[in-house]
Amino acid sequence: MTRSQDRLLAQWRAEPIREGKLRSYARLAKLDVYDYYLSGFVVFTAILATTTQFSVSVFPMLLCFVAGEVCVLASLVAFDDYTGYTDGSDIANYGPDAPLRRKLRKPLVAGTLTPAEALRFAWGAAAAAAILWTAAVLAGPYSPMWTIGLMVVTFVVSIQYSYGVKLSYHGFQELFLAALGWVLVLAPYALATGRLDSFVLVQALIFGLGPLLFGVYSNTNDIEGDRSVGRTTVASTVSPRANALFVGALSLAEFAIGAIGSLTGAAPWWFVLAMAPASVFRAMQFYRGFRAGDIMTARRMGFRVHRLSVLLMVLANLIVLATA
């Protein structure tokens, strides 16, 4: 950190914050941001909707997989916080001059955890994730090699996302945020069924865009902090207009995936209509962020739109099941 960042940190901690370690570790793991974990509901209902035989071994597999993904993401965000603290970007993005950001969201900056504690937690969560995902592969009725390979790559890249190689600092952030969501739907479905399904692929693509479409709004808010440490995102690299076009294209792509799925028969013909409420709210999110200029409110809207999308996909799967 630079001297100016040290001064900002001292100002930030002018009023000491006291909080229990367990709660601080939960904040470090970002357990309140559960949007990736919703993949389990999509996968389970998709299995029911697209298969005629259901094995009870799916339950322990899904339990181990979802518990593993919680640990993968806890490790990822803990490493991200550690790196963001040590390079000073979190001081800029969450410091006293950023009143819309909550102090306790960053335990290292707030002083409720030390860097050493965060690093130990990150490696511990990674170890737990490796054990749980191995157990998921062993417990599942199928174990396609491509699925195992996908899980291994996802695990390794998650650790290197903001630590080690720091892939998110070199232009891979947006792709990874979406790809992670795709894997969290496709991998457990394949472990349960041994195959891919076109309707599940459509849902996986939509699911992965959800977390990305609140991540890009965060990046838009964090442009200066990211630029100061050389973290390459679309928002920190291109002009404001180009960034707005990029986010708009992602929003449109989410709708287009459902529409193309319905038109081609990859999804039921009515699927695009079922997803229409989420498409409307996604347009409202874009308007709030890039027309009204309220990026942080638009970011919060992104969480709600993603959760609505998950609910609609779950309902679509149950409709397919009921009408089969």
UniProtKB/TrEMBL annotation:
Membrane-related topology note: Multi-pass membrane protein
Compartment(s): Membrane
Listed InterPro entries: UbiA_prenyltransferase (IPR000537), UbiA_sf (IPR044878), UBIAD1 (IPR026046)
Record bears the keyword Transferase: yes
Alphabetically ordered keywords of this record: Membrane, Menaquinone biosynthesis, Transferase, Transmembrane, Transmembrane helix
Transmembrane regions: 33-52, 58-79, 121-139, 145-163, 175-192, 198-217, 238-261, 267-284, 305-323
Protein name per Swiss-Prot or TrEMBL: 1,4-dihydroxy-2-naphthoate octaprenyltransferase
